[in-house]
Each structure stands twice: as structure tokens, then as C-alpha cells.
């Protein structure tokens, strides 16, 4: 059924506020001819606002591509990607750059901090790029949110891996993005520090209704999410709600034996 056209600004606002991201039948192919690889095939996925989603699947199943298309880091070949009510597929490069800068946060497996800058200066960088003057306490508050208020003056080399990833998180969150994307954000961390980062992501969702989507291949990491979505060969093939690590591990084993 086609939903009715919203009538009042309030109604539009209400409708807009439900989903942070929507992918509709997104297809993405790399290369051409014999060397063409279809990384995503008609993928449809909705991320409700304030939800924490884990994206799982075997290596090469399209997880990173999905995240990059959803975050405007890469373009879908066909289908539609919506961030809130903004359709990304038709945007110019300039508009996409602004959108990534102002509305999206991204963390990767590698922390990608600038080694010569302190934690505080690293966190401030996105504001400077957006030509926004940071509020007096804004950067400190961002570091406090990730539990690193007392490390503001440290350089990356003076911080542990877990602390560096938390600085990267504070940097991703400083612009108050609508969605925080993580591509294997705990992939380079040992299990104890990895869990601290995962607990933090969980708290951001619970306390601040931050929308989070994270790629991981670790069932324990995925069990911190509200939902685990499974990809195989560029297609979505199921999901688990409020999954336990054991449920996820079993599903992953099945996927590897017989992709959907
Ligand atoms: N830039 C690229 N050029 C060519 N092929 C790519 C590129 N990025 C990804 N691929 C291919 O697309 C498929 C999905 O990759 P990716 O999204 O990185 O998977 P995952 O993150 O699940 O390991 C793989 O077959 C991969 O080799
Ligand atoms: Mg990947």
C-alpha cells in the first residue's frame, strides 16, 4: 500500500523522524566486463532512529560496500539511499561531502588519528573542516562522553589502542551525526578493550538515542546490537533481533556452509 502524502509540516516531521537510513533495492558493481563484481544486489534495509544494528557476513559478502553506500562514501549504481529524508543518489560531490561532514560519523578498524595532534586537536578537526568554531567545552565534553576527559593533551602514541579508538569515536561524534557508522571498529582491539568500545556504543544508543550501525565478524560484538543483519554474496539473507552471541555464531556457521 502506498502511504498517504503527509499533509502538515508536523506530520512530515513525524514521518521523517522514524528512519535514520533507508536502502531500497541498492545494487553496486565494481569493475566492468569479465572483471565485474557485484558487491551488493538489490539490498533493502532500514535503520530506525536510535537503533544499534550489526552487519555480519563472510569476508567479501559486501558489508563494507553496504556501509559506504549508506554513508555516502560510495555511490550505488541503482536503487535509492535515504539519510533521513535526503536522497543521496542524486547529490553532487560537493553536496555529498557536506552531508558526510555534517550528518555522518564514521569509524574504521584503523583509528586514523593524526599522530602529531593531541586527542583534543584530533577531535576538533571535523569542526574546523566544517568551519565551525568549537564551543568552549564542546571538545572536552566529547572526550568526556567516551571516558577520556583526562587524556585531552595526549598524542595517539601515548594512548592504548582502545583509547585511540575512543578518541576516533569522539571525533566521529563531535558534529552530532545522525548516524554513526563503524566498519569493524573493534577489529584491531583485544577482547577486553573491544568490549569497552562496544559498551560505549551501546550506551550511546541507550542514553542518547544515537543511531549506530557496525560491521563486525565477531558474534560477541554483534550481540551488543539490537539486531544483527546477515549478508551473503551481496544479498541480505536474514536477521536476528536481540540476538545472543550463540544465536549469531550458529547463523554464521550455517551461512558459511550454505549461503542463502
Ligand atoms: N574498490 C573495489 N574494487 C573492486 N572490487 C571491490 C572493491 N571493493 C570491494 N570489492 C569487491 O566487492 C565485494 C564485496 O567487498 P566488501 O564490501 O569489501 O566485502 P566485506 O566488507 O564483506 O568483506 C568483494 O568481492 C570485493 O572484492
Ligand atoms: Mg569489509
Search tags:
single chain, alpha/beta, six-stranded mixed sheet, globular, binds adenosine-5'-diphosphate
Describe the structure.
This protein is 36% helix and 25% strand. The strands form 2 sheets. It has a 6-stranded mixed β-sheet, sandwiched between helices. Strands 2-1-4-5 form a 4-stranded antiparallel β-sheet, with helices on one face. It contains 9 helices and 10 strands. Helix 4 packs parallel to helix 6 (161-173). By secondary structure, it is of the alpha/beta class. It is globular and about 50 Å long. It has helices at 9-16, 63-70, 93-103, 119-129, 138-145, 161-173, 191-208, 219-222, 245-257; strands spanning 19-30, 37-48, 52-56, 78-83, 86-87, 104-107, 179-183, 211-215, 227-232, 235-241. The model has no long low-confidence stretch (mean pLDDT 92). It starts with 8 loop residues before the first helix and ends with a helix. Bound molecules: adenosine-5'-diphosphate and magnesium ion.
Q: What is the number of helices?
A: 9
**Mean pLDDT across all residues, rounded?**
92
Computed structural class: alpha/beta
How would you write the strand order of the largest sheet?
A: 6-7-8-3-9-10
Fraction of residues in helix:
25-40%
Cofactors, ions, other ligands: adenosine-5'-diphosphate, magnesium ion
Question: Beta-sheet strand percentage?
Answer: 15-25%
How many E-type strands? 10
Shape designation: globular
Based on CA atoms alone, the radius of gyration comes out at 19 Å
Largest sheet: 6 strands, mixed
| Low-confidence residue ranges | none
Euclidean distance between termini CA atoms: 28 Å
Order of secondary-structure elements: HEEEHEEHEHHHEHEHEEH
Amino acid at each position: 500500500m502506498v502511504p498517504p502524502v503527509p499533509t502538515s509540516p508536523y506530520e512530515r516531521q513525524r514521518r521523517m523522524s522514524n528512519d535514520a537510513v533507508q536502502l531500497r533495492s541498492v545494487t553496486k558493481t565494481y569493475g566492468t566486463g569479465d572483471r565485474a563484481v557485484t558487491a551488493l544486489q538489490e539490498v533493502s534495509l532500514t535503520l530506525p532512529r536510535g537503533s544499534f544494528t550489526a552487519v555480519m557476513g563472510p569476508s567479501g559478502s559486501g558489508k563494507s560496500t553496504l556501509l559506504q553506500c549508506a554513508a555516502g562514501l560510495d555511490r550505488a549504481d541503482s536503487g535509492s539511499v535515504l539519510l533521513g529524508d535526503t536522497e543521496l543518489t542524486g547529490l553532487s560531490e560537493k553536496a555529498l561531502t557536506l552531508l558526510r561532514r555534517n550528518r555522518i560519523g564514521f569509524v574504521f578498524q584503523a583509528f586514523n588519528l593524526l599522530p602529531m595532534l593531541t586527542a583534543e586537536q584530533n577531535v576538533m578537526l571535523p569542526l574546523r573542516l566544517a568551519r565551525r568554531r568549537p564551543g568552549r567545552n564542546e571538545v572536552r565534553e566529547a572526550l568526556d562522553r567516551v571516558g577520556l576527559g583526562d587524556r585531552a593533551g595526549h598524542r595517539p602514541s601515548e594512548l592504548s589502542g582502545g583509547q585511540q579508538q575512543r578518541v576516533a569515536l569522539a571525533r566521529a561524534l563531535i558534529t552530532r551525526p545522525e548516524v554513526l557508522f563503524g566498519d569493524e571498529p573493534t577489529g584491531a582491539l583485544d577482547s577486553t578493550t573491544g568490549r569497552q568500545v562496544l559498551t560505549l556504543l551501546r550506551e550511546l544508543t541507550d542514553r542518547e538515542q544515537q543511531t549506530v550501525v557496525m560491521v563486525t565478524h565477531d558474534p560477541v560484538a554483534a550481540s551488543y546490537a539490537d539486531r544483527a543483519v546477515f549478508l551473503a554474496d551481496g544479498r541480505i539473507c536474514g536477521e536476528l533481533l536481540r540476538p545472543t552471541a550463540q544465536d549469531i555464531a550458529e547463523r554464521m556457521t550455517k551461512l558459511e556452509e550454505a549461503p542463502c
